[in-house]
């Protein structure tokens, strides 16, 4: 909180500034004791599915796509930044009507991810996944499935260089204009850029790009070093994601179409888990749980 002195304080007290979209928020991180650690709260392992990537994670939802997972392991893309050099040559879904559908990529690309994340984008159920071209690096791909067909319906431009990767954060209406954006960190190992995309005529087009972030450590299987929460309670979802060195968490917003950092919290040790969001049934601020390299679980609190 800023301290105000003298006349400035008097004026501020008599004429409070009209709240703008980028309200500040106070964020604090404190240790918390949880039996079984953070995994007991947020991780719900599901049994492997047919053709599944060895270190894949099954995505589950209650919408029209019930399960999604990456398939057809391949070593044709020699990159290996997310745990091993085995990537996925395809993905599979099971729909609400129990249809089992698979999509396979051509020899020019792989899915460089561990999860084919079931999402809703502009009110359509689909799957969000990282598609890496052997010659052009990573792109975001949005996949739709109906009762008998599955296909990529929108894709972003690839980064443009082989062995350049991106790690998705998730989907929300981050600027409050009524349309969804997909948030991702481009090149998280070499100066990550927080980039937001919109679906537009069969493409995912870049809408915002800001430097100074990283949501992955090279070689790690942990992909969830980010969270989407309305930290300042203005009704627009905000993003919690580490800074470039991953020594701090940045809480940022694009509300009203303007980027702003709401808060920044130093981490007492390196990140060691994905970030999990807990929301209270009776209202109040959401909280973000995380585990650090000191093997302690922490909770990130927000207060206006
Ligand atoms: Ca929007
Ligand atoms: Ca907000």
Describe this structure in words.
By secondary structure, this protein is mainly beta. Helices cover 4% and strands 44% of the residues. It is built from 2 helices and 21 strands. Strands 6, 7, 8, 9, 10, 11, 12, 13 and 14 form a 9-stranded mixed β-sheet that branches. The protein is globular, with a radius of gyration of 20 Å. It starts with 5 loop residues before the first helix and ends with a strand. The relative contact order is 0.15. Residues 1-19 have low confidence and may be disordered.
Question: Could you give a short description of this structure?
Answer:
The protein has 304 residues and is mostly beta strands.
Class by SSE composition:
mainly beta
Count the E strands.
Answer: 21
Largest sheet: 9 strands, mixed
* First and last CA, distance: 10 Å
Topology:
Blueprint: H1 6-14, E1 26-31, H2 39-42, E2 59-60, E3 65-74, E4 87-95, E5 100-104, E6 109-111, E7 117-121, E8 124-133, E9 137-145, E10 150-156, E11 166-172, E12 181-186, E13 192-200, E14 203-213, E15 227-229, E16 238-242, E17 248-253, E18 260-266, E19 276-278, E20 287-291, E21 297-303
Parallel strand pairs: 10-14
Antiparallel strand pairs: 1-21, 2-3, 3-4, 4-5, 6-8, 7-8, 8-9, 9-10, 11-12, 12-13, 13-14, 15-16, 16-17, 17-18, 19-20, 20-21
One calcium ion binds next to loops.
Name the descriptors.
44% strand, disordered N terminus, 9-stranded mixed sheet, 2 helices, binds calcium ion, 4% helix, 4-stranded antiparallel sheet, 304 residues, globular, mainly beta
């Amino acid at each position: 909180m800023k301290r105000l002195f003298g006349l400035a304080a008097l004026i501020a007290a008599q004429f409070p500034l009209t709240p703008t979209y980028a309200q500040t928020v106070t964020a604090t991180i404190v240790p918390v004791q949880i039996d079984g650690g953070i995994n007991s709260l947020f991780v719900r392992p599901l049994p492997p599915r047919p053709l599944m990537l060895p270190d894949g994670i099954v995505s589950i939802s209650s919408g029209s796509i019930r399960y999604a997972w990456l398939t057809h392991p391949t070593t044709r893309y020699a990159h290996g930044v997310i745990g091993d050099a085995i990537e996925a040559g395809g993905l599979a879904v099971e729909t609400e009507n129990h249809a089992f559908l698979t999509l396979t990529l051509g020899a020019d690309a792989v899915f460089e991810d561990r999860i084919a994340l079931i999402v809703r984008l502009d009110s359509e159920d689909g799957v969000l996944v990282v598609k890496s071209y052997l010659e052009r690096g990573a792109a975001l791909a949005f996949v739709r499935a109906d009762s008998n067909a599955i296909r990529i319906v929108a894709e972003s431009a690839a980064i443009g260089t082989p062995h350049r990767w991106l790690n998705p954060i998730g989907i929300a209406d981050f600027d409050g204009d009524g349309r969804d954006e997909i948030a991702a960190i481009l090149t998280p190992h070499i100066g990550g850029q927080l980039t937001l995309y919109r679906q537009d005529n069969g493409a995912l087009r870049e809408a915002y790009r800001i430097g100074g972030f990283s949501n992955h450590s090279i070689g790690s299987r942990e992909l969830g070093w980010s969270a989407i929460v309305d930290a300042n309670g203005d009704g627009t979802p905000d993003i919690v994601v580490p800074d470039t060195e991953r020594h701090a968490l940045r809480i940022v917003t694009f509300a009203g179409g303007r980027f702003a950092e709401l808060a920044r919290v130093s981490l007492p040790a390196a990140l060691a888990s994905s970030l999990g969001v807990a929301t209270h049934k009776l209202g109040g601020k959401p909280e973000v749980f995380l585990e650090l390299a000191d093997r302690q679980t922490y909770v990130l609190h927000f207060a206006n």
